[in-house]
Design a protein that fits this description.
Glutamine Phosphoribosylpyrophosphate, subunit 1, domain 1; six-stranded antiparallel sheet; globular; alpha+beta; Rossmann fold; 28 helices
Length: 663
């Protein structure tokens, strides 16, 4: 796990030493991603520079130093991540005559590219990675990101300079970087709570989408566009066209074997691995499979909170005791969580409003006190249908599609326009549609959301509305047009699958890489901890799409086949408690200990200085929330995270943060 950065200065107007110094300054903004070593490489003849910060995980010797050149000298790479099947590839390449100086997966990557080419090598890699590869013979730069988007990679042109990096803060330290905030990306951020790929918060800077390869030819700067080598929709199509033909027990057996191997190869490191353990199905499965293949107790880590509704530590401890892990738990109070908030803008480096970022950082910090690598259960919900919103949407969509459109329109109008009967209507809707799903927002807010959902005719906008943090971001922004996203594009090329499977696929395309994996990557790397995610082994994902939906979502229970794998290691009764998630009580905090902080950042004077938001509209949300009339905690958290980020960048960056006129 590392930080990578670099650039191509097409003016070619400086020396290799100056290029290296600029690249070094960019990389040094990411010391947290690689505190163990650093390196730079430059070639003034073509204006290219690469830089690297290293967190030593595999091959701790100097032979793992980067930037690393291939044996022939043709390629130079900076690489972030891990290729888990590199021992197998090393053996195959050795049989073909390749020799190796050290034992790193980076050296295997270069040999694979020499042997198979970039595209052929990437097809063989099983891992999480983002790398930049300079081809000295062709004079081209290749950027590649792993299939599911575990590792980040930003890029873009700033004048005549092409920039790339693991984090935006590295780009901002280059003198050519002058991009302003993208109003369109800000609209997407307010809708989702994150900026979805390929967008970034800056005009002209993009995220390389998961499973994509970008080739930059400095002689033709305007011609490059990312090309996919692996896509979720292709995995869906391939899996559903060749469905698994065995029964339930055969599916459990094969999934157990696949997950065992996915866990096994992610336990390989030259430093001791551990695991996050929440006590839920996903993390418990990962830990169970780790312990089953370990000769000593696996180190597991959990944080607990005094508020019972947010505390998962008790069940985690039961699971740890049953499995015999070396378990560490730490109970925290509100003050511990609140202490993290000032660090979030620098930590996430882009506006990000998933409040579980706070406990994710805290458990990462706890784990880093003992280990350098930690496995997590992320991805289980998206791959095996675990989110309760899938059940909610399925129930509601059935109801929506049964009612004739005119009747739906009348019902939507009645619900939206009858606040006095809202509570009764929502109670009936919950009994009819949502079954046991908890809905915590006030009845009036639920009614408005239900009214909107009843108005949609096709699944993609229906689901987009269901998962939107702010369904109408334009109401809060000045002069912004919301660009395309995965869900708007889905309307043009829909998945022809049952609604639950469509939602799972959309989440794998956007919510997982742009929210969940961003949260895990930034929170863990802030403390120099490498996080590995076995459920996102592409073999597991591809196998899951071969399984019939009934094996993933059975009745009102998601992750059915995964639960049956877990029950081989942990008794069923231990896992039957309610799913709590990993959140913090934002609504209460904003009315309590964070009240003054929120009032300052969201004051009309503060908002007016930025020229991005409609101050009166934001002030209305603040008043309604603080008075207890409405619950706008999620929306206000998004606004606060942007404001805090914007202020932080203004303090620490040289580029302008003025609102861009480009939309």
């Amino acid at each position: 796990m590392c930080g990578i950065t670099g650039f191509i200065d097409t003016s070619r107007s400086t020396t290799s030493e100056a290029l290296s110094a600029s690249a070094r300054a960019m990389a040094d903004r990411m010391v947290h991603r690689g505190p163990d070593d650093r390196g730079e490489w430059a070639d003034a003849r073509v204006g290219v520079a690469l830089a690297h910060r290293r967190l030593s995980i595999v091959d701790l010797s100097p032979e793992g130093h980067q930037p690393m050149a291939s044996a022939s000298g043709r390629y130079v790479v900076v690489f972030n991540g891990e290729i888990y099947n590199y021992p197998q590839l090393r053996g195959e390449l050795g049989a073909r005559g390749h020799t190796f100086r050290g034992h790193s997966d980076t050296e295997v990557l270069l040999a694979a590219v020499e042997e198979l080419g970039v595209a052929g090598a990437v097809e063989r890699f099983n891992g999480m990675f983002a790398f930049a590869l300079w081809d000295a013979r062709e004079r081209r730069l290749h950027l590649v990101r792993d299939r599911l988007g575990e590792k980040p990679l930003y890029y873009g042109w700033a004048g005549r300079t092409f920039l790339f990096a693991s984090e935006l803060k590295a780009l901002r330290s280059h003198a050519a970087m002058e991009q302003g905030v993208s109003r369109g990306a800000l609209a997407l951020y307010l809708r989702h709570g994150y900026v979805p790929a390929p967008h970034s918060i800056y005009e002209g800077i993009q995220k390389l989408p998961p499973g994509h390869h970008l080739t930059i030819d400095p002689a033709r700067p305007g011609e490059a566009s990312p090309a996919p080598y692996w896509r979720v929709r292709d995995a869906v199509a391939a899996g559903t066209s060749t469905p698994f033909r065995g029964g339930e027990e055969a599916a459990v057996e094969e999934l157990d074997a696949l997950l065992r191997d996915a866990v096994r190869i992610r336990m390989h490191a030259d430093v001791p691995p551990g695991a996050f353990l929440s006590g839920g199905v996903d993390s418990s499965t990962v830990v169970a499979l780790m312990q089953a293949q370990s000769g000593r107790p696996v180190r597991t880590f959990t944080i607990g909170f005094g508020e019972k509704a947010f505390n998962e530590a008790e069940n985690a401890k039961r699971v740890a005791t049953l499995l015999g892990t070396d378990h560490t738990e730490l109970y925290l109070g509100p003050g511990d969580a609140l202490e993290v908030i000032p660090r979030l803008p620098q930590m996430f480096d882009e506006p990000f409003a998933d409040s579980s970022q706070v406990p994710t950082f805290l458990v990462s910090r706890l784990a880093r006190s003992q280990v350098t690598v930690s496995l997590s259960g992320d991805g289980g919900d998206e791959v095996f249908g675990g989110y309760t919103r899938y059940l909610l949407a399925r129930s509601l969509w059935r109801y929506v599609t049964v009612l004739p459109r005119p009747v739906r329109g009348i019902a939507a109008s009645a619900i939206a326009g009858a606040p006095r009967v809202t509570g009764a209507l929502l109670s009936a809707a919950r009994r009819l549609l949502l079954r046991s799903v908890e809905v915590s927002s006030p009845p009036a807010d639920q009614a408005r959301r239900l009214a909107r959902l009843l108005s949609w005719r096709t699944p993609a906008p229906f689901y987009r509305d269901l998962v939107s943090m702010s369904p109408e971001p334009g109401a809060l922004l000045q002069d912004a047009t919301e660009p395309e996203s995965a869900l708007t594009l889905a309307q043009q090329a829909p998945y022809r699958r049952p609604l639950v499977e469509q939602m799972m696929a959309w989440d794998l395309e956007s919510y997982l890489p742009d929210d969940i994996l961003v949260k895990v990557d930034r929170a863990s790397m802030a403390v120099s901890l490498e996080s590995r995610v076995p459920f996102l082994d592409h073999r597991v994902v591809e196998f899951a799409w071969r399984l019939p939906l009934a094996l993933k979502v059975k009745g009102d229970v998601g992750k059915h086949v995964l639960r049956n794998v877990l029950y081989r290691y942990v008794p069923r009764e231990v896992m039957e408690g309610p799913k709590r998630g990993f959140a913090v009580p934002v609504d209460e905090w904003l009315r309590g200990p964070l009240r003054e902080w929120a009032l300052d950042l969201l004051s009309e004077e503060h908002l007016a200085r930025h020229g991005l938001f409609r101050p009166a509209a934001v002030s209305s949300l603040v008043r309604e929330h603080l008075d207890g009339r409405r619950s706008w905690g999620a929306q206000l958290w998004a606004l606060l995270m942007f404001q805090a980020w914007h202020d932080d960048q203004a303090r620490h960056s040289t580029p302008t943060l003025a609102a861009s006129s480009t939309r």
